[in-house]
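Can't attach files on this board, so I'm pasting raw text. These are the components:
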Amino acid sequence: GENVEQHPSTLSVQEGDSAVIKCTYSDSASNYFPWYKQELGKGPQLIIDIRSNVGEKKDQRIAVTLNKTAKHFSLHITETQPEDSAVYFCAASRGNSGYALNFGKGTSLLVTP
Amino acid sequence: KAGVTQTPRYLIKTRGQQVTLSCSPISGHRSVSWYQQTPGQGLQFLFEYFSETQRNKGNFPGRFSGRQFSNSRSEMNVSTLELGDSALYLCASTPGQNTNYGYTFGSGTRLTVV
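---
Top answer:
Structure tokens for the assembled complex are below.
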């Protein structure tokens, strides 16, 4: 089955700096790569996703890049703010109905003022 | 638009008991998936239902079961609870006919087995 590895497990940055989280996947048939943010006491919230026909996608301060040849994708957060502090999860899936999302183990991001 | 609603938010059960958790998806969403979240194993897929049929199942023992009703609401049941079943159980919904894009998660049910 699909195996998703995520690094680093913890990341501490100063407010205003950039944060980068990286994930690799094993199933070459995966073509859907969402990122989720989970705050304490809440369920994961979808923040951005990318599909395999796109190499990069941006939404304000958040961007995701995908390298299908190398089977890795990354989340970039620029101009970090304290409210960005949370656990971030990457996931990979074949995207078709009936296929589950396979999640990485998460990255705990702390943004210090 | 109401989000995914999970009830109850918290549960404490004793080993050997059984438990039923409930999930109401976003209106119009027909696919409901369940995940178990623990600090050690992360988010692990339990099963997915679409139009009252189980469409996919993860690698969990038969003590874990689920169902979906005609209004798309779903329940999951865990029988003969073990200490290791303590976890946050998350439900997610998507419109779900052909793709699994855009899972929306509920806030989860925190199950503690003592």
